[in-house]
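TOPIC: backbone geometry
CONTENTS: sequence, structure tokens:
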Amino acid sequence: MGIKSNVIRLDAVEKVTGAAKYTEDLIPANALVGKTLHSTIANGEVVAIDIEEALKVPGVVDIVTCFDVPNHKYATCGHPFSLDPSHADVKNKTILTSRVRYYGDEIAAVVAEDHLAAQKALEKIKVEYKVFEPVLTPEAAVESGNDLHSLSPRNELARMDFQITPDGKVDFYKGEFSTDPHIGGHKDLKGTKFYVPPQQHCHIENICCFAYISDRKIVIVTPNQATHTLRRNVAEAVGLPIGNIRIVKPYMGGGFGNKQDTYYEPLAAFLTMRLGGRCISFTMSREETFVNSRTRHAMDLWSAVSVNDKGRITKKGLRINSYSGAYGSNGHAITAYAVTNYFQLYPALEKQVGESATVYTTMPSAAAMRGYGIPQVDFAMECQMDDIAMEHGWDPVEFRRKNMMEKGFLDPFDRFHCASNGLEECLDKGCEMIDWKERRKAYDEFNKKSAGIKKGVGMALFAYKTGVYPIQLETASCRILLNEDGSVQVQVSATELGQGSDTVFAQMVSEVTTIPEDKVFVIGKQDTDTSPHDAGAYASRQTYVSGSAVKQTAEILRQKILNRAALLYNEDEEKLNLTYEHVVAADGTVLGSIADVALKIQYINDIKIDSEHITAESTYTMRNNAFSFGASFVDLEVDVSIGKIKINRVVAVHDSGTILNPQLASAQVHGGVAMGLGYALSEQMLFDGKTGKMLNDNLLDYKIPTSMDIPPIEVAFIETYEPTGPFGNKALGEPPLIPQAPAVRNAVLHATGVGINSLPLTSDHLIRAFSKAGLIE
């Protein structure tokens, strides 16, 4: 069938029948149980830890504290390793810590024969602290006088400030942390403030791992999105060569970027070394996953836009103060990604100024989450576009049409041209599907007569880059082995975490070799000892970057098959072709099947021809990037008196280049829209301002949408051809989430005339805004 077909997911049957084995399913029965002791303060130092009573608990095997572990600092992020120090990840995490940086920080660990013994021991450990005040905002952190990390004075992890000249050059300068609405001190760039909260990934499978020693190696089984990077991080943490560490990734129950990071794997590795190679398992509870894994970055954003009387944007300015949380993880990369995106989707004619800072706060660490900073900046950017359109009496769609990026646009930061752009077609298709002009007009008339219920239609656009080139290396490898029955085994380290990448890889191999997908076996369980290198699952890069490696390797395999067939059948290799699993001569004569070639060449006993097991392996280095685009349209109604939003319909239109599997692509959009609606309407992590403790670290109090909350979602694709993608394809995994929050907010603006500049749009939030606007008493 190949590409552009609705091939059923390779893992569908195993997952729906329960046969799929996840990490917790594979923990050996005799494994010891590890549990961590979490700090009960948000900011301070551990002065002493008393474990005497805890050691007396029956079943306790070992207890280690922050004073017992190696002091090797390591990076936790799943980025590819960089030889350039300016692009290397921040190394400021240790296995356990005596310097507490958030409520729940890991300061000790218990190993016991079962969960109950481990928990009882934790409760008997006594800790003495030196306590400092929590700092929950960048402003408080900068002004606190108490640095969370010694190499980051005033708690500023990093910053990036620049001006873009009219000729498209970027001039960087060193700004200072500020909450002044005037961007860069420019009086003509006074920004409107927006705020977006931290968000948790809420994947079904909690964070977990287990480790043991076998064949002189520490083996760690873990659902991680970037296995080769994790191997390096663990090696640095425990002070061993990389070759001494083996990472095995089984099925993964979702990740959304959270499982790109390093968690308890270094601790498990250290403890198995300490205990003679015995198997140690760690499984976070849901509460621990909320606090001790990663979150989306909260951000304060000030956005300034000037327009001329023709509706063209003349000046733009943006400041972002980003909440990093306790540790560095992705460093400043997410904030930098956000601030640069602001000047890509809608480039200004004249002045463009960007300032951004990432600041440590005493909150759970922020890192990669679906959209990688673009949902945050898109909220500010798209909300302001509607505000400007309303102020001038312009149609929001037409205002965007005059200013949005066009094909051929040169990204001033990464210096690549936009080679495919279906954004205008996305706008047109979305307007058609939602009946934009007529519905806006009808709702305007309805709202004049209705005081309690208001109706609105809103929309938002986005642009999203595929992969991280040229800021970091984009590379992937693939290995394909041809079996003597004509089937193939495909080995990759591009991790399948639910997005369907393994299925699409099988389609790619089938497209090139003509071997049907049911004979293409993609090895979806990665093992760093046997799986070829790949940077991992992030940045919606897999079908773009890893897919390029798969296609390239399949082409090598195809050529090898034709070459060996030419030897076997005494034909001219240049005149042979593959069709429907068979080798065909120039005149259309079928010479034999791929299985025939594989079998005969592997077992041939001919003095003139060497036997061979046909395999192919290659590494693809991506030296391009591509923008994906899309538009979301939301039809909703608002019960003003109780601040309740009811979404009637969402229309999502995407340009992701060539769609390789329409059914999987549509499913990606449905999932992304649902996640984006949660970000818009209900999801927020709440913290006690005095203690820094998270208040809603469970799925009862942290509100994610259920199946009952998801409105009808209509999906359409504008298929362009992206010349840098392996089959004309580009990013789709993350983009569907990006425009949902501003589209909802802009629909509320249309319905009520009230523009709300912070998320989520909960009832209490809406009622305060409506009361302030005079809509309710």
